[in-house]
Amino acid sequence: MYEEMKEKLKKIGIIPVVVLENAGDAAQLGKALMEGGLPAAEVTFRTEAAEESLRILSKELPDMLLGAGTVLTTEQADRAVEAGAKFIVAPGFNPTVVKHCLAKGYPIVPGVQTPSEMEQAMELGLDFVKFFPAEAAGGLNMIKAVAAPYTKLVFMPTGGINEQNVKDYLGFKKIVACGGTWMVKNSLIESGDFEKIKELTKNAAKIVKEVRGDL
Predict the structure, then answer these.
(1) Which domain does 198 fall in, by range?
(2) Please, what are the averages of pLDDT over each run of 10 residues along the chain (215 residues)?
(3) Prediction pTM value
(4) Among 186, 161, 179, which residue's Cα sits nearest to residue 68?
(5) Which of 2, 49, 157, 190 has its CA 20 to 30 A from that of 18?
């Protein structure tokens, strides 16, 4: 399950990180992402609408790879999976949440920034981590530096990644996928501009294909 999820994320390449204030926007947003060529979303648990949004997306778009982001507690992790999330993403490394997810069989991608946190993840048997906030924490140079001693670790950098720098990230072999928000900006969702979201998503999917070809 864990390896399968990782392979799916790698194939998609850029994972839209979505903040939904209104669950009524979920289905249209999901369709725009699917039609744009990025059939995935990390729905962040920062809003009251997150759980219901996951339920709607899971029901309406069963082929979409759904994750729950900004998961800070074991209770949120349970609610997210029950609502349809196929994987859990956390901004930091909380051993309680990580151990809970592993015990329940939920694929989890915890956030790390330092070598110590990376070693904690490896100690629990994980080889796939989120690097967050990517650009603020040293970006691709930092990832390359830590990838040298931690040869088994692979990364999903998120934070500060955009159309200009994502190519460089995707070109490094230790990066599974990148989290991005530029195609799903809050202003576009709130104004209902799903055509623009689709257009930006198409451009992002094109970048993945340019860098990686057909995986």
Answers:
(1) 2-207
(2) 92 98 98 98 97 98 98 98 98 98 98 98 98 98 98 98 98 98 97 98 98 83
(3) 0.97
(4) 179
(5) 2
Identify the CATH number of the domain in which residue 109 sits. 3.20.20.70
Residue 27 burial (CB count, 10 A): 15
Tell whether 212 is covered by a domain: no
Enclosing H/E stretch for 100:
helix 95-104
CA distance 38 to 15: 7
User: Which of 6, 51, 86, 130 does the annotation list as catalytic?
Assistant: 130
Counted domains in the chain: 1
42 in active site = yes
- Does the residue 213 lie in any domain? no
Helix (H) or strand (E) holding 17: strand 14-18
